Amino acid sequence: MSNTIISKDLANRKLNITREFAAPVEKVWKAWTDSSILDKWWAPRPWKAETKTMNFTEGGMWLYCMAGPNGEQSWNKVDFKTIEPGHSFTAVSTFCDEQGNIVETFPTMHWHNVFQANGDKSKMAITITFDKEADLAKILEMGFEGGFTMGLNNLDEVLAQ
After folding, report:
1. SS3 assignment, position 78
2. pTM of this structure
3. Which range of residues forms the domain containing residue 98?
4. Sign, Cα dihedral of 58, 41, 35, 64
5. Is 27 contained in some domain?
6. Per-residue pLDDT tens for 19-57?
7. What is the CATH number of the domain that holds 20?
8. What one-character DSSP code corresponds to residue 102?
9. Is the sign of the CA dihedral 155, 153, 49, 58 positive or negative?
10. For residue 159, is it within any domain?
11. Structural domain tally of the chain?
12. pLDDT, tens digit (0-9, with 9 covering 90-100), for 91-147
């Protein structure tokens, strides 16, 4: 439906992402906060997201795996910091092992997600901040822009169902 806009602010170690969805904000919020829906869209195809555990509360955590078509696994842990139900949340995302132990060689991503109603549509604005400029560069080298855009395209399909 709508294009994903990703702008890079290298000096401030930030990615700014905006996207509009043809769905009410309540439905978009639920797609971001319910692991059974997240698993349907989060990973770029042919990869799949597989939630091991999720507790969407302040201080809670989402531990999931991005499973590749040839048995590859990339584990990630998201620690939820603040939640304003139906409107915004902040979280810290780190690469980890299956038990949630952080892999220090990968960048930490600090997410601030904001959701706004726009008539019968929704607008999402995300700011991802990195500890170091090199961390932002590494995430971009790993294909974040293309992969995240593919995931958001998957979300369009899920929201249309």
Report:
1. strand
2. 0.94
3. 5-9+16-147
4. negative
5. yes
6. 999 999 999 999 999 999 999 999 999 999 999 999 999
7. 3.30.530.20
8. B
9. negative
10. no
11. 1
12. 999 999 999 999 989 999 999 999 999 889 999 999 999 999 999 999 999 999 999
